[in-house]
Records
---
Amino acid sequence: MADESGSQRRSSNETIPRPRIQTLSDLIFGLALSIGAITLLSERPSSITALAISLVGFGWAFLILAIVWVRYTRIMSVLPVETGRMVGANMLLLFLVSIEPYLYNLIPASYVSLPGQLNSEITTALYAIDMGSIFLIIAYFTHELTVEEKRLIPRELLRSYRLQRNSTILTAALFLLSISPVFWSSTFLGVPLRMILWMSTFLVAFVRREVERHRTS
């Protein structure tokens, strides 16, 4: 009995309360979303075109992180995250989110060719690795919700979450596939295919919503 109670106390001491994990995640996502806006303050666009390019770039970074945050928040509202692999996966996800603004802001600077500086092919590949890894972890969390034996969500929602899981895996695959050098050297209308693959992730989200809407109608 004493050993059992001691084991329970150790297990209790090893857990991390959900509110603390949520507080940390909200802080990191908030900082990541705001760093892009702070970066804009250091820029001095010389024309309307330059201003538009800066705002479009900021809009992309903000929107993609906002999508991740919305999915993450919805999943974490029902997924047990206090112990074991979930804590590790959460910490890795939050680390990847925290470095996203840094990697993203390396991209425009890398277009100016300077000795000893990473070129744009490398910086965009690093950003793609980061985003692909983020979406893979979100897909893993979503998969955990779809395990029927755990009964974390109502049975009638299983198909919807499985569709979300599959679309998230596809999104991660597009980012990771874009790492291949061929998608940087090849262009369409002057835009590297790597970036076109990034933008196609929004098409994946749109198709998922349409399929889900069709199923429920």
---
Amino acid sequence: MKLSVVHRTRYDYAAPVRASFNEARLQPISQDGQECHQFELRIEPSATINTYYDFYGNIVHFFERAEPHQNLIIESQSLVTTVSRLLDENREVMPLGQLQGLAMVERCFDFLQTSTLLSLDTEVWKLAMDATAGCRDIWEASLAIMRFIHTNFIYSPEATDVNTPMSQVIQMRKGVCQDFAHVMIGMCRTLKIPARYASGYIYNGPHDHLNGAQASHAWCEVFLPGIGWQGLDPTNNRQVDEHHVKIGIGRDYADIIPVKGHYRGTPQKHMTVEVAVALVE
């Protein structure tokens, strides 16, 4: 599936600000069959853009605007080809009782620990045990956790924001894709299943009914020995497929914030975000 993505973030400040330093993680990766054919980043007022790769291999664009300005627009345009990498849901991968050794695997270690926005406390572990009762296999358990969240949590954009603690989301049983990804990752990690946060977009076609298409999307990836990282989308109760455009990964949202920065000046500002994902015929 070939998709075009436009992501536009606009900041309007109550008074001119200066010394603005920003990072953008907006460029889709070319990996695991996904290919980013074109990417363009536009900054207004204009600024020189530089690029580097962060610790997890995500593409980061950074820029600064020293001169006073009262608004800032960051707009990315991408053209991406996506593929489906679905795994048979009845496939046996590894018994849950044999997961201890994964903590020694370098690419899994970070994704078994607590992190900035994740809690691995007893409450999360109990929730994971309830969700996976009767499960014997790592893949079976991962699917059960995804289904449990989709069934027991309500998608509600007004219920949370980016600063809502994971514990509060569990209590309310409400949230958005970022919240559900965090809950799933936390539940998986308490069972010693390596799990990481994936950031990107989702295409909601004319005959689809998918949540999370109006903004940046997020899902969970679990590590399956002998297979690799497999994406699961608890918001929509489905494996990650050609509808998903992946930007990058991290331990949680704090590692892969689409746009972040700081500046000198008034704290009063208004931010608007627009995302459009379209099928290219």
---
Amino acid sequence: MIADKVKSQNWQKLSDEEILQMRIRDLGVSIADSWFEPLINRFYEQLDAKGILFHPPCYLADEWLCPDKEPIIGIPFFLAHPRLMHIEQEMMFDVEGGTEESCMKLLRHECGHALNYAYKLYTRSRWRQLFGRSSAKYSNSYHYQPYSRRYVIHLEGNYAQAHPDEDFAETFAVWLDPNNKWEQRYRGWPVIKKLRYIDSLIEKVGTMPPVVKTQGKPPWSASRKISTLASYYEHKRKELGSSFQGFYDDSLMKLFTKVPEGSSAVKASNLLRQNRKVLADYLAKWTGHRKYDIYQLVNTLAKRCDALNLYAIDGQAENMIGMTSLLAAIACDTLSSDKKR
């Protein structure tokens, strides 16, 4: 057993394949001495600067989260060690919160949830007027307006439009960021009312002790997860479905090639981007999907083509037919009038 092997040697010296067979709780990682521990301290300093005395406790979980109605912040365990970040990149092609900038953005976002729950802000009538009802049901998909000025722009996917709680968390994150001059950035936008509401709201509750405190052991704690890393990633990929970056790799490798053949070979990503407008116009006309969503889909596939180092033969009609067919199939499978979360 790998667990027994770890008793006699540091798991960091094991191969990726061996580490994947370890249970998450046996990794023994912690926030202390991690690269993002100073970022948490910086984040707390930003709360102090805004007159917020409550500092939401942080712990290692299986993903970025703030448990429902609990004023605590979960940070993915894989961020706590470079080897685990490497494995996350290899398995998921992305490390959410893996840079200082993205980590701080996510900390501020989750803090919005934590403060919302700590002070039961969602019960206030003005909160409901501006953001909606916190009791609204979460959905696996949400419809959004890409250029709406009723919401702040913060996390990808126009996430403020996913749910009233997310709207508040995103608005709070923008308000908290000391480098975001929101009064100038959002001047004339309807969303300025939400930002000014948070400004006045914090003046009232910022120095108050929270009315809700953490209860017992935090849920989804990495220190209690008995599943192996391999099982964790199998479940994670399955849960993401078509949102997983590598979901369409097989289809892309059938359509394009890794070996540039002849002088007319071009990067597949370049071919996709060069024909993006034509593809979006055509597919929007015949499928009814928004051009914005198709543009995003083309960009996503182009990034994967770059990662896979794929090539195409420039000028061949088969390429356009293949690209159009693949995009139409994906659009029908994953796009509706909704945007996947």
---
Amino acid sequence: MLQHTSPAVQDYLKALHMLEWEGDLPAQGRTVSTQSLAQRLDVSAASATNMLKKLDGLGLVEHVPYKGASLTDDGRKIALEVVRHHRLLETYLAEVIGLPWDEVHAEAEILEHVLSEKLEDRISTLLGDPAADPHGHPIPAKDGSMPRFSSDRLWDIPDGRRTTVERVADEDPAALRYLAEAGIRPGAEIDVLRRGPVDGPLFVRVPGGGDPNGETALSRELAASVWVQGGRDG
């Protein structure tokens, strides 16, 4: 089905999927506003509306005028396939090619549209059928099922707790470089120390990573872009 859709259509469907699932507990089937979609894709609201009407006609989304759209089952299948391509490519570029984790997202954005199913299967087998990409984001299985993942953000973990990084947002290369220098990667343990008033910053320590005796300051926005598992007493 993927080979019969244009890169533009794939981008819209993937963006709708990401906005459905973004951040907290998945809200599959939730209506995504046209404005949110336009901002995500950096297009005008009018352009987004026109594309949503087209996708509705193709049976890939359900478009509600002046409200937004949600993916149909067929639209979600395509979106998940694009996400699978993207995250497998990120993993391949990082683990096999050796590209830094702050560069793989942009490259995968280009290659995800041209990856054949045969090459997708070869890459997945070569990598050992990974469940997550270098940033910790779950890779949809071949059948479209998604591994379980946490909705807890680092910012929401109480002071004095230790937690484990599950995944980090991958769109901002500068943020990824900063997190890497601090040792904040999937699997890393983090001690939440304290936070400044109102919007932070949040001060954390990463045992065994970065400067184990020092502290790292994270803005609220950056701390909210890190998803974690658990929050036990440190």
